[in-house]
């Protein structure tokens, strides 16, 4: 992907999709800064990134808190010497149709993207003229944005807002040579993740979801990370304002 030397910030990068994104960039030779709430998982991922021979910076950050984001982005830029790519990956996974469910999704899935993007914009704009294809923001949405849900209405609605905001960001930032895209994963399974837990606690839901996917399995975090790396690379230099579904055909069914 010719990403060697790129300076990448991954918001919510300690586990699952975020971890795979961080490791994917590091494997390409990019420097990586990442944040998350859980200190142990965060440090473990930072060590994995550093073991690949690149600069690796990590700091705890509650992405529901504006002050934490405002502190982390400049610290990440200082550690990396700038920012070329911002990946907004974190989710509050708001499920219930009540105040708590909506707040969880809005504060993290939406406002963390807004706040991190605003904080990183000056660094991205400074880097963009020096990069073929410009600088890049990639937001992580979900296929839940594309269909109605009885089980997780706040999560789906806010992820749809993420897609809309991605298009608006792309339009606002094009003059600064910052491309903005989104990925919309389907059901992704990894150790310690929600779908692994559901396989044990709610096999009916797990199997019903599995039956929706033509390839007969849930996705892997690396399969989402590969698309994120493509969108950040020069190979996607004429791609902006897009939301790319990564679901193994889950939306179209078996």
Automatic annotation (TrEMBL):
<dbReference type="GO" id="GO:0016616">
    <property type="term" value="F:oxidoreductase activity, acting on the CH-OH group of donors, NAD or NADP as acceptor"/>
</dbReference>
<dbReference type="InterPro" id="IPR036291">
    <property type="entry name" value="NAD(P)-bd_dom_sf"/>
</dbReference>
<dbReference type="Pfam" id="PF13561">
    <property type="entry name" value="adh_short_C2"/>
</dbReference>
<protein>
    <submittedName>
        <fullName>3-oxoacyl-ACP reductase</fullName>
    </submittedName>
</protein>
<dbReference type="GO" id="GO:0030497">
    <property type="term" value="P:fatty acid elongation"/>
</dbReference>
<comment type="similarity">
    <text>Belongs to the short-chain dehydrogenases/reductases (SDR) family.</text>
</comment>
<dbReference type="InterPro" id="IPR002347">
    <property type="entry name" value="SDR_fam"/>
</dbReference>
